[in-house]
Amino acid sequence: MLSVIIITKNEEAHIAECIQSVQFADEIIVLDSGSTDQTCALAQQLGARVHHTTDWPGFGPQKNRALDLATHEWVLSIDADERVPLALAEEIQRVLAQPQAEAYTMARLSCFAGRWIRHSGWWPDRLVRLFKRQTGRFKEVRVHESVVVQGSIARLDGHLLHYPYDSLDTLINKTNQYSTAAALTLHEKGKRIGMLGIIGKACWTFIRIYLIRRGFLDGKAGFILAGVAASGSFFRYSKLWLLNKKTQWRPKPPTAL
Question: Which residues make Cβ contacts (< 8 Å) with residue 152, sequence separation at least 6?
Answer without folding.
Answer: 100, 101, 102, 103
